[in-house]
Design brief:
By secondary structure, this protein is mainly beta. The protein folds into three domains: about 50-130, Immunoglobulin-like; about 135-230, Immunoglobulin-like (Sandwich); about 230-315, Macroglobulin (MG2) domain (Immunoglobulin-like). It is built from no helices and 27 strands. The strands form eight sheets. Strands 6, 7, 9, 10 and 11 form a five-stranded antiparallel sheet that branches. The protein is rod-shaped. The N and C termini lie far apart (about 80 Å).
Length: about 325
Amino acid sequence: MATGNTYNFIPADGDVVKVKMTANATCASSELATDNLRMTVLPHETPSAVITADPGDTVCQYALAHLYVEGAFGGSAPLYSWFVNGVHEGAGIEFSYAPATGDVVTCQLSSNYLCRLANTVPSNGITMTVTPLVVPVVSIVSNPGLTIDGGTSESLTAVVTNGGTHPTYQWEINGVPVNGATSATFTYNNFANYDSVTCIVTSSGFCDGISAFSWVYITISTTGVMQAVTPGGDVQLFPNPNKGTFAIKGAVGNTDENVLLQVTDMLGHIVYTTEIKAVNGNINEQLSLANVASGMYILNLHTAAGNKAFHFVVEN
């Protein structure tokens, strides 16, 4: 019990303080007025911040990392600042960026909590790992060969490296998918002369869904002679990586012939095409791709004997 118009005490959370005033005014409508106040007592606390990465601390090359922070005792207006390797890169409860392997991401909480024991605190750190994109490399092996008699059964097998444990396959004839032709080997006995046969391979693994392809042309022989030739056995593309200008050089056969060169992006879109002349079975050509974005590309070299694919990277 206390009297007077002020009262000092050390409250506990939930205490209810009540005051009564007895009036002595001559014409007071009521001699007694009351009011009360429930006290809220906040504990002294140290703010904290914990960050997580979704889906985790490992991402595929060229993908964004998404990070989130959860704070405690940040007050009514907490401020979150994100740092990558100690350099300020963003603010807010969410942060996205393109990481590099070894990046350490942290978040600093600035608190306005009334009874804080620290104004700013750092979060835990997350060390990022970037898994490189590995493009499948596809080659096609034919049996009995790319030149066959009409009506002969031809078996084509896709040989794949960097395809992961369970790559998927889709065979096409002249750009049209063949229903059910979804295994590594495709057998067919009704090819027409100069049919183009393509195998599209999509990789599996952590960074799955990357596709590559290779194709061959089928020649129907009128003499019954069959051939099995692998083109471009010692052809080289250099430099790799490059800035869109590179050379293609090597032997493609033993005769003069026209060689078709096509460059596609990883979605199969043709970004460049040209036809060059092999002299005595050799090519030596400088190519320059105009206005192409940085990324991975495929150069397809096509001769009468078959196809060879080169994967290269443009770094502008």
